[in-house]
């Protein structure tokens, strides 16, 4: 009986530790940042005719370099808290090659592994223009549904495909685990940020960088408006 009790206590301790490990550091008493990224200029969308793998790619490629939605909302901007300490997110990053596009166009991740998917089921060839991390130039045949790659150093990495010249994406490897990517309306939400005063860094592939001061308070949501300029 006593032996069973010891085993039970030990198991409970292990389960408790595992549960604890999955909570980001700021989960208790953290605050939320709601960033609103805007751009007053015109969208930049390039189009070109496609005559290869048209069954999967379609006949026209659309390269969305500056996506502006309703109320000047700017999509695909990476918003990150600099200096906040805490555990990394547990969701594994992934980017898909779908319709001969990288989906999402911009993916942000902590240093580590990313799954590169090929849901098109045709030959793609991922090519990264990284400098801090080693560059990848690798064929992904049609039968290879997922390739896992590692990016250990923070960097904004341009990604192309050597088979389909128009394919363009970005992998943002972030030094802090507190980041988000703006959606079609320009909104990015960062949760569970430990209270404190920080710099909020915003990056966009075409419009460059901006920084704003932000103060996060426990249990509160702070709204930050960022207007990107050319
Ligand atoms: Cu491709």
Question: What this model shows, in words?
Answer:
By secondary structure, the protein is mainly beta. The chain has one domain: Immunoglobulin-like (Sandwich), CATH 2.60.40.420. It is built from 2 helices and 18 strands. The protein has a 5-stranded mixed β-sheet with strand order 7-13-12-9-10, with no helix packed on it. It has a 4-stranded antiparallel β-sheet with strand order 14-4-16-17, with no helix packed on it. Strand 9 and strand 10 form a beta hairpin. The longest helix is centred in the N-terminal third of the chain and has 20 residues, at 2-21. The protein is globular and about 50 Å long. The protein starts with a helix and ends with a strand. The structure holds copper (II) ion. The site of copper (II) ion has 7 residues, from loops.
Poorly predicted regions: 5-27
* Rg value: 21 Å
CATH topology: Immunoglobulin-like
Number of structural units classed as domains: 1
Bound molecules: copper (II) ion
Q: In what range is the share of β-strand residues?
A: over 45%
State the share of residues found in helices, binned by percent: 10-25%
Shape: globular
Average pLDDT: 89
Helical region count?
A: 2
Along the chain, the helix and strand elements come as HEEHEEEEEEEEEEEEEEEE
Task: Return the CATH class.
Answer: Mainly Beta
Main beta sheet: 5 strands, mixed
CATH architecture: Sandwich
The CATH superfamily bears the name Cupredoxins -  blue copper proteins
| Total beta strand runs | 18
Supply the helix-strand structural class: mainly beta
The end-to-end distance, rounded to whole angstroms, is: 72 Å
Spatially, the strands of the biggest sheet line up as 7-13-12-9-10
